[in-house]
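Suppose a classmate hands you a notebook page containing two proteins, each written out with its sequence and a corresponding row of structure tokens. How would you begin to make sense of it? This section walks through that situation. The first entry is reproduced here exactly as it would appear on such a page.
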Amino acid sequence: MEYQFFKRDISWLSFNYRVLLEADDDSLPLYERINFISIYSSNLEEFYKIRVADHKAIATGKTPEDDESVQSAIELVDEINREVNRQLEDRIRIYETKILPALRKHHIIFYQSRQVEDFHQEFVSRFFREEIFPYLAPVPVTKDRIISFLRDNRLYLAVRLYRKEMPDAKPEYFVMKLPYSKVPRFIELPKKGKDYYLMFIEDIIKANLTTIFPGYRVDSSYCIKISRDADILIDDATSSNEIIEQLKTKVKKRKTGAVCRFVYDRAMPADFLEFLVDAYRIDRNELVPGDKHLNLEDLRHLPNPNPNLKPIQKPQPMKLNCLNERESVFDYVEQRDLLLHYPYHSFEHFIHFLYEAVHEPTVKEIMVTQYRVAENSAVINTLIAAAQNGKKVTVFVELKARFDEENNLATAAMMEKAGIRIIYSIPKLKVHAKVALILRKDPAGHKLTSYAYISTGNFNEKTATLYADCGLFTCNAVIVNDLYNLFRTLQGKRKAPVFHRLLVARFNLIPELNRLIDREIALAKAGKGGRIILKMNALQDPVMISRLYEASEASVEIDLIVRGICCLIPGQAYSRHIRVTRIVDTFLEHARVWYFGNGGKPQLFLGSPDWMRRNLYRRIEAVVPVLDPALRQELTDMLEIQLADKRKACFVDAQQHNCWKSTHPQKERIRSQYTFYEYLKQKEERIAQ
């Protein structure tokens, strides 16, 4: 039987639709639901900029691709657009029939047009004249004569006008970029009684178009926007300097990339749209009908003017008693391995770990990988302090981290200036491993206990409050040495490294995964029960999926907890023992944790890679075995809690539907993120007693 696989991008759309369903959940705080509409919209924007743009380049013959023909690319883009249009109908329904009425119920009136109550008309007029008008720059649009450049992901108002003194005049067209870098997108209007009022900036502009265009009769106005290809393809380069120069050039060109989507207000008349399509030379395949108000990703900035409507209450990161500010992380890790779960645990513990390295005299060297870091990063600032304190600091900077290229270039330059040794991107490879190494020696130069840190998430204190990740601290000498070998490899000092416990993509990761799966197959065939639980963000590699199909055919029981892309098809003859669970909740599930039953002596691993071709074959990734029995149990408990979730977890079926595990999910007790937070909290309380 030939194995089948879901299409990667259709699977991703299934995930993003699950994000949208959070906005449909009446039991969630209102502004959390609004935030999920924002996340859904932002995800979709990036998807079009990267994935759809790639397929369209193949469809037009601009970019040849071995894996995809021109015809299959055309068909896939059509399929994507059909599914997106279906989802957008749901987004409109949720927004108009659920979110807006819920706001009104809490005395927040969110105007959805230029029409306002009489008592607000003077305010709207005055606010426009004083705060908005000075920043507007209408540009005429004339076919083949005046064609303005539309910036990527900026909102424009397209206006159709007629000259008043010329009854037979032809229509004239203008576009204006909305100035909400100068003025907020959402404007708070004066309160009336118990009611608070909000308004879109574009609706205020629409209400005052006659002020902008005196002598004209305003026919109509509609919002438009363009999404441009944002993917950056780096040519194979022989040196870091070449990669840096390519990136500097290509990041600038991102703003002028090829159009991959022209979004317009679906209420726009056909002849108005026709004019814009011709004037801006838009391919009809790029047309995507949208709502009256575009760029709903901005909703994350929607003000909450009602003090009685409480803000979202999220679990607050806890600090471990054993790692308070007076205690040494080094001393703790010398006694036992330490596992932190973000955002349930505070990321400050990792900062403290680095800070301790700055001031500990026996620390001679610090090595860290940088993929995505926060702006004004505490991690980077601490590494700079270490270098200034005489430590040898080496940072591997991955310049090709999408949308973080400029930030990574800037922080790398700042670190280099402070005396930190910077190793840049490797040609043809991305380094996605999230690892840190602290090496110690006594005054005589003899090696002392050193420390390794391997994580599923980036060294980013901002995302550590938003993403659910975990990181392991250990002083295990074999793992420390393996990690040292990995950094030597990144420095070009090891061509064929040997790793004993650390699993590293492109070296020993795939062989070990195959061995682990083979063992579960053998156990199942021997009647001893094969068991695999895999938690990750994405599962796409057909080779590894085929191995899971093979294991299922041997009766290995497999649970997959896959947040995003999952190309494995459940419910088939060859996958009847495989279940796919998807969890979407307050925090972004980002941890990669793998469980292999091993006949009752489970082996667990955590690390940076998903099971995608890019992760397994084109990146440097690091995975560490969890050796401490108590920590293995803790991770096992986490996986079991997530599999028991019927509140925010759903099954993905053979049609890629998000199927709730319960007929009444809102009434279910186990909500895995919150349940696991309580689990960790209770564990900490027991230790403190």
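The notebook's second entry, a different protein, reads as follows.
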Amino acid sequence: MTLSEFQDSIRAGIPETLPAPKPYDITINHAPKRKDILTPEQKELALHNALRYFDPKHHETLAPEFAEELRKYGRIYMYRLRPEYEMYARPIEHYPARSRQAAAIMLMIQNNLDKAVAQHPHELITYGGNGAVFQNWAQYRLVMQYLATMTDEQTLVMYSGHPLGLFPSHKDAPRVIVTNGMVIPNYSKPDHWEKFNALGVSQYGQMTAGSYMYIGPQGIVHGTTITVMNAARKQLKARGLAGTEENMKGMLFVTAGLGGMSGAQPKAGVISGVVSVCAEVNPHAAHKRHDQGWVDEIHEDLDVLIPRIRKAMEDKEVISIAYLGNVVDLWERLAEENVHVDLGSDQTSLHNPWAGGYYPVGYSYEESNRMMAEEPEKFKECVQESLRRHAAAVNKLADKGMYFFDYGNAFLLEASRAGADVVKEDGRFRYPSYVQDIMGPLFFDYGFGPFRWVCMSENPEDLAKSDAIAAKVLREIMAEAPEEIQGQMMDNIRWIEEAGRNNLVVGSQARILYADCEGRTKIALAFNEAIKNGEISAPIVLGRDHHDVSGTDSPFRETSNIYDGSQFCADMAVHNVIGDGFRGATWVSIHNGGGVGWGEVMNGGFGMVIDGSADSDRHIKDMLLWDVNNGIARRSWARNEGAMNAIKREMERTPGLKVTIPNIADEELIRNILK
């Protein structure tokens, strides 16, 4: 397809003449069939809802086709409307647009749906089993058409993948405002999601899927790398050893999930210098990560795998191994054979336990998918039995010295609901969330989080230039940084300096870097200057994972190290989005859902296009300050010591910032009063 044909296809939106039906591509990793949850009357409603995108003259053709999709797949995806062109992030100038900001958003959307990036690209699901960009291909076409025609004085309003329309605004307003899954709280159970999604009225946007900010596995790799390195240091410290790279070699890290969470763990294990073993039941996912170079070896036979693990540990290899099989079988075998596991976790998509996020032991991948759709209650029973066995094996290894942490994808939550032995007598989980032990106190409380950027030229040279700029800025900041954040600075300087040779790019020319407010702002301003003087050839999109200091409220993940009772309150995420929206974000998003599931978390995010202009400088200074310090201030009010120190430093640095600081009551006084 020529560039002109591609642009014409974008401008056409839903074409006047329907495209021919598309064959079902069996080479692509597809979403499992969703369970049949709608009543006959609701199925009629689902068809009415789907057909409203099309001229009535097409209804006779499309109605039976959509009814068959609903019957066969549990959703109406409108496969016929899937574009003819390849889906990937093109250079920004290839997109037909009246607004450069809108063109940047088009690039980000297409990257989210790139088959190299997306988990189930033809079902418009980017990651996590159900993290969707859109509900159907008609929505995609309409959105791209709107973005191609809008100006910098319009705002596109998005309701769970549906484009409500273009509304007049102004140049400093967001170009797009996104919501996903914003249902009434009493209707946020998993079956509610199944029903509303099947009706075509709501979707689960995950975090960065539904807000167009996903950058492939790299985003999760960095968070996992930091977690693994600091978990390894905790283990080494407990043994009286220094947390050096040399001492980390030969340590064993065991986890699961190469599909829904992008296969981050193997790469993180390699960067951390350990032996990593990751279980995955989906052959498509395992082989995809191996083909991409994210996994070094794949083994299907535990009789072969166990000796291979022992040898790798003995030889202190830095290697990533995938086990193509069920993680429960792996954990039980490791416990049975007394293999010393240093670090254990789980990155299966257990926020989505009944619809493909976790597969029960003892059943093939194919049989599980059949049972999921046709015998959902039996499937649920099998999953819960697996979770009980899973937890039992983990407990055996933890009793022998393994440090196990929940990566925040609801393993402990769902295991506890299944009756597994993961809850202590005081009602708390037996194992910490990675946020509680590592990310929260060491990073989030100090304002460090997953700052990310995408080079709109799609030129690797621009990305390399941005890496060099970021490293230079961080080294300058580190020279004056207080001792309490020196370690965080060093880890991130090492990351950014090593990023290029670790081949982290999958999809768009993007990078992630954990930085605090000062770091994010100074790096962004340096990028803007480089664009202005031509060192970087095109605009850059700034963003972050929602998994950050301020963007997400969840008692099981991002705010699990908040102990004043407010870990269940979502004020922070909501304020984050509102504040970003009037301080210069190009688009903002807020979702019900994220890494721990529908109804368990509230996520707020943003994207910002910088183009070398004075307006971009102003937006950077205004918005990034709020985007980070909103969360630090909330964490400070929760009496988190690191956050209290961080916000005091920020008030000294920033005129006009005045934050309410908590007074600390004497614990003994309170205990005595309440006797």
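A careful reader of the second entry would note: The chain is about 45% helix and 10% strand.
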